[in-house]
Structure formats: C-alpha cells, structure tokens
Amino acid sequence: AHAEFFEEKRKNNFIVGYAGTIGLANCVDQIIEAAKILKDQPIVFAILGAGPLKDSLIEKTKEYGLPNVYFFDKVSKSKVAAFLSNADLLINPWKGGNSIYNYGVSPNKWIDYMHSARPILVSLDGYYCIINEAECGRFIPADRPDLMAEEILKFSKMDKATLQKMGENGKKFLVENLNYGILTDNYLRIIDHTIEPKS
C-alpha cells in the first residue's frame, strides 16, 4: 500500500515523511501545523506510526480541512526502511526548552533516516550534531511550525540532484564513521590515550 501511495503522490507532489511514535515528546502536532500553512502547495505529508496523540491529530487534520496529510499504521522495521526511502524529505521535530539537548542528541531515528539516504529536517533547541557533520540536512529552532513550513518549501524547490546528494551524504557518513569496527577503533584509541600503563 505504501508503494502505491508514493507512486501516485510523487507524480505531482513533494513528499515529506515522518516515522515513529506519535506522542507528546515527538511533536508531530508541529508537522500538522506546518501542513496547514502549506496546504495550498504541491506538498504532502506521510506520517507512519502509532501513539497516544494519533487519533487527536487525525481529528485535527479533519478540523483544519487538510487534504495533504496521510496517516499510516505502524509496520515492521523492514517496511519502515522502505517507507523512509520513498519520501523526498524526512522530518523530526523535538519539543523545545530542554537544556539537556545542549550537549547533543543522537536518536535512533536519525540513524534510520540517514540510512534511507534521504535529506533530513530537524527542529531542535540544542546542539546541532551528526546531521550537520554529515551535511545531510538542516536544523531549525524547535516549536516553530512557521519556520518548518518555510524550510519544507525551500526543500521542495531544490533540484533532485541536490536532494539526492544530501541524502547520500547521510548514508555515507554512517558507513564511514558509525559502523562497529570504526567505533571500536575510536574507543580503543581513547582508552590508549587516557589510561596510563602500570609500572
């Protein structure tokens, strides 16, 4: 069903994807607010997952009269990967005002998103790490659906080659920096430089 959806929508639209929990901490409501701003643009939003706020957000899209937002039920991990790789842009909003994010975050979602070789837009109040280093997307401040809509519109107007390169940067970064062999080597190097040998 996902493949048919993407095939149909891709003809005339830019597709923004989200996969994950739909709860308070995940701020999917911000995606709905951005979709409201962009409802007259050729941009559609595909939201995959389950969570306590899903029903209320489905109701909100009806209340707003949004024809550009589609919800999909939670699926197996392998099917999530296929879903992500079919979007034109992947999005990850975070709740603002949490000072712990100043020290950086490294959620599993980013790894899944980067592995799909698609560009990524993150809204976060905190240290902008990994995605900046990989040059595979952009950050914006949290709790700003207006900025989110503005950035999505910018992405939608980029040429396909630029978007493809950005997505490939993310996957390349994972392969070159975050596989187990390299992480083990880095870990051992740190230990070698911090532990003095006993005499």
What would you note in describing this structure?
This protein is α/β, with parallel strands linked by helices and 199 residues long. 48% of the residues lie in helices and 15% in strands. The protein has helices at 2-10, 28-37, 54-64, 77-85, 108-115, 131-134, 145-156, 160-177, 180-194, and strands at 14-19, 43-48, 69-72, 89-93, 120-123, 137-140. It has a six-stranded parallel β-sheet with strand order 3-2-1-4-5-6, with helices on both faces. Strand 2, helix 3 (54-64) and strand 3 form a beta-alpha-beta unit. Helix 2 runs parallel beside helix 3, helix 2 (28-37) packs across helix 7 and helix 5 (108-115) packs across helix 8 (160-177). The longest helix has 18 residues, at 160-177. The chain starts with a helix and ends in a 5-residue tail after the last helix. The relative contact order is 0.15.
Secondary structure blueprint with pairings:
Elements: H1 2-10, E1 14-19, H2 28-37, E2 43-48, H3 54-64, E3 69-72, H4 77-85, E4 89-93, H5 108-115, E5 120-123, H6 131-134, E6 137-140, H7 145-156, H8 160-177, H9 180-194
Parallel strand pairs: 1-2, 1-4, 2-3, 4-5, 5-6
Helix pairs in contact: 2-3, 2-7, 5-8
Work out the number of β strands.
Answer: 6
Biggest sheet details: 6 strands, parallel
Number of helices: 9
Cα-based radius of gyration, to the nearest Å: 18 Å
Question: What is the 3D form?
Answer: globular
The topology string of helices and strands comes to HEHEHEHEHEHEHHH
Tell me the strand order in the biggest sheet: 3-2-1-4-5-6
Q: End-to-end distance, in Å? A: 66 Å
Helix content: 40-55%
Strand content: 5-15%
**Overall pLDDT confidence:** 85
Query: Runs with pLDDT <50, length 5+?
Result: 99-104, 180-188, 195-199
